[in-house]
């Protein structure tokens, strides 16, 4: 049934295109005859042409139009390339007519040249008039008027499609300083610079339904925040233009509201899909913590690269079921196994590895909520330290090619139990990897560590908290007005984690990264510049169509146990080294001897299982001397160069 429906649709599409080409052929040849009549009148010898000028002009254009495919043009979407082809067809038609009139007794050769120019003016003029008429007709159908921010190629594509979206473009607001008000670009007035947007919007008529469309894909971060802020002050909605590069014909691209990810002060980096495919295709892959934010996105992206089997491990039944439902819809043919297991249970983890024999392991399971781990330090250390060691040791015993540890910026100069637990996990994986790389054996397991900051929308992070508070009408709670954090979208972070895995396992050759890995290097994602949490709260209020300090208040609550005002992605004594992959850098933190870290971790595990948190934290300090615990949420440092902000700011 589906095949019959598809065949019927293809036949109908073929008939529709045939009718369009036939109609265009008739119209263009008739216009060619009109152009020939005009040329003959201009030259003054209409009677000297056998069969009359119209017949000769129609014949010339009918023949010349096919090589340049002008009969397949859609008049309402005709652009620069279409008019170039139209000019080529008119030149060829002029040559054909010139050859026909060069016989003895015929008209002078001037007729052919005049005919070519007349044909182009008539054909191009009719197309332009039709586009103008269509735009005017559709502009009258919808009253919403648009101001476009940007003037590049993307803006041009939007201007072409705007009438078919029911928009009337009133003017452009380019970012280049050379664009002055009073000039015209693409037939539209330049209203001013982006910095003048507030005044431009305030001067517009209040009886019109206005909208600002950001058509510049590079307008992100603070630039987009400024546009949003100025438009919000005048009550004008802001929409962003999607990628229009793949649109053809009458396809419509819905404009989307400004998203929080658009306001991040960085351009997203796309991973090398070919390198990821060579690492993952046909492999048995295990993901721990598969029900969490990072783990679930890892599962989705890995599934796209054709693994042989995917083993999803998590303690939670419901999140594991949710991920499985997603995979059923997106990758139904993928063989997958759902495993309920606690990574702190060595016997259970041993059975999982013995049964499924994974070749790659992505270890995302962890306790990451800083205040909760502060309240339950032994549980955090058992999960993040002992659990990581159990998974890594089982992976090594069962011939896993590589294990990837997902780490955090809180592991650098840790002030919390969660941070120090992740740093110890890093150190153990560093020691395992350094031993394997020094041995040089092809079968030895590689341990790749990837460190990054906050991901937007992850479970327990500040953004879902703000969304919940907004739904209740506020206030939004910010711990300190000076608090800053690195942010990245979860999809980009996971894509770069996979990219780092390809570099670290040799699936994608990178000699510099390989040399640094032998010295205990860890991958650090390029997170851009940190974002002030107070600014993030304000932006979320504005995106909700409300006013900070008026509709929704912002309340400061003080630092929570284990928190710092700012996180670091690397230690001050480290020098971040570039890699061959965009978005990835490498740090070389202090390494320890594997035997030393194993002895202390044994004692730490015993102390945690006995509930002796004081002894466990003392052992953690022996491994991580830079661990300065902040259990009471005291402000111990202020980020360099940061100006104090009044606590009653809104």
If you had to describe this structure to a student in words, what would you say it looks like?
- The protein is an alpha/beta fold and 650 residues long.
- The protein folds into 3 domains: 15-135, no CATH class; 142-258, NAD(P)-binding Rossmann-like Domain (Rossmann fold), CATH 3.40.50.720; 275-454 and 487-526 and 568-623, NAD(P)-binding Rossmann-like Domain (Rossmann fold, 3-Layer(aba) Sandwich).
- Helices cover 47% and strands 13% of the residues.
- It contains 20 helices and 22 strands.
- Strands 10-9-8-11-12-13-18-22-21 form a 9-stranded mixed sheet, sandwiched between helices. Strands 2-1-5-6-7 form a 5-stranded mixed sheet.
- Helix 2 crosses helix 3 and helix 9 (293-303) packs across helix 16.
- The chain is elongated, with a radius of gyration of 33 Å.
- The model is unreliable at 1-5, 138-142, 246-251 and 638-650 (pLDDT under 50).
